[in-house]
Amino acid sequence: MHMDWIEISLHVDGEGAEAVADALSRYVHQGVAIENRFPGEAWEDEPFPQNNLVVRAYIPDDAEAEEKKQKIHEALYYLSRIYPEIPEPEFQIVHEEDWADAWKKHFHPIRVGKHILIKPAWSDVEPKPDDIVLDLDPGMAFGTGTHPTTQLCLQACEWFVHPDTTMIDIGTGSGILAIAAAKLGAMKVLGRDIDPIAVKMAQENVERNGVQNIVTIQQGSLEGLITSPRRWGFGMANLTASIIRQIATEGLQHLIWPGSMFVFSGIIDTQADDMIALLDSIDLRLIGKRQQGDWIMLVTQRRWE
């Protein structure tokens, strides 16, 4: 059946972006993307200019569309009482044949860290000899590398992944972090996501990058992982703070060996202190953090029992 889509987009700052994404996520299809308005530009270690992020999401253009648009307007109105800078959402029709490619014009080759080159699958950019190339087609899954939370995690992969590393990536999205770990020398990587669309795209990206012997992609939550005897030597979760809070109550720390590191990103600087305290309460003690604009990455270590 033919189906057009309605794209919802808002230009917001760092703190507002996560709040808007949380508000939209109740009503939209396949999640919400937060993108840099100026892809290809380097992120600096200073506050971002106002409104340089785009929150983008889609709803089907069907009989329920007007009701959903009204609910989105209401949710954003209440949110604007807390974040006065949140603008009105922009709506535009995207035809079915175009919607899967709608975001591609915003996704360009990006360099991260010392050697990582994120290369869109359709780009003909010429890598440098020492580049570690991530050949990526995110589809509608999270993880193009344009967002600072993903860039922070990629830098962490460069720092912490070595040839005998085993890694688990919770909320793998496009598979970008799992693939990066494999190309940086990890021995075994598990990427897990609850979204079937993300799982499909991540698996395709794993095969596109030729790391299917190292990276396994699975659909599912933490259930089943926690009770398994399997433990990992390094963990990553590039998620929203609200989801990290949720999984922290589900035995998250038991995914990794005592003494191993777990990296968390997707956290706004104003949320960091509460998140550090919560993670400490489940025996993941803070050993380092890195900030990029408004966004914080926390590096934790599981205490020895």
Describe the structure.
The chain is α/β, with parallel strands linked by helices. The chain folds into two domains: 5-102, Alpha-Beta Plaits, CATH 3.30.70; 147-302, 3-Layer(aba) Sandwich (Rossmann fold). The chain has eight helices and 14 strands. It has helices at 14-24, 65-80, 96-99, 148-160, 176-183, 196-208, 241-248, 272-281, and strands spanning 5-12, 29-36, 53-60, 90-94, 110-112, 116-120, 132-136, 166-170, 188-193, 215-219, 232-238, 256-268, 284-292, 295-302. The strands form three sheets. Strands 10-9-8-11-12-14-13 form a seven-stranded mixed sheet, sandwiched between helices. It has a four-stranded antiparallel sheet with strand order 2-3-1-4. Strand 11 (232-238), helix 7 (241-248) and strand 12 (256-268) form a beta-alpha-beta unit. Helix 1 (14-24) runs antiparallel to helix 2 and helix 4 runs parallel beside helix 5.
Provide the β-strand percentage band. Answer: 25-35%
Strand order of the largest sheet: 10-9-8-11-12-14-13
Distance between the termini: 56 Å
Largest sheet: 7 strands, mixed
Find the CATH topology of the largest domain. Answer: Rossmann fold
For the structure shown, list the relevant keywords.
single chain, alpha/beta, Alpha-Beta Plaits, 14 strands, 305 residues
Please provide a brief summary of the model:
With 305 residues, the chain is of the alpha/beta class.
